[in-house]
Hints:
mainly alpha; 3-stranded antiparallel β-sheet; two-stranded antiparallel sheet
Amino acid sequence: MTQRDWQKDMDDVQGYLKNKHLVHHNEQTLRGEPVAVVLQYWLQEAKELQEIVSGRGRELLRLRSLMGGLNDELTATEDRADAAEAREQQLKEAAQKVVDHTEPITYLSAMLSTLYPDTSAPKEEASIVHCPKCDNQNLIPHPSQANIWLCGPCNQVIEEGTDVNVD
């Protein structure tokens, strides 16, 4: 069977139905209905099925594209979760080492400096801060408060510009 153009067939049937009064012949029927009417019905059904199929085809392509994007996003999310779990495990191990270490502030400072190796260390200021208790000059800057320093050897917290401990 050859492929037919349903649109052309539909145009022919509609033209026939519109002009059938001009033709004088016995009209064939199928189960009591004129063949042209039956043919028009089935051509209309074919048209609707083609629209459904082409619509579903477009929808299927859209859904495939969406699923591909979601799969890529899921993979990226899983990769981020794996990396976060690895960082969490490293932090747990490091925290345990800090707890076990004899000089926790010094060790913690060294450990924290490895978390962000690409970040340059803070520049030293002209004034030298030293610990009033042990005279240590290698103080560790407080991670979140400016002008506050931590002394590793004696575990003191010192405020810059004073000779007294903050705590």
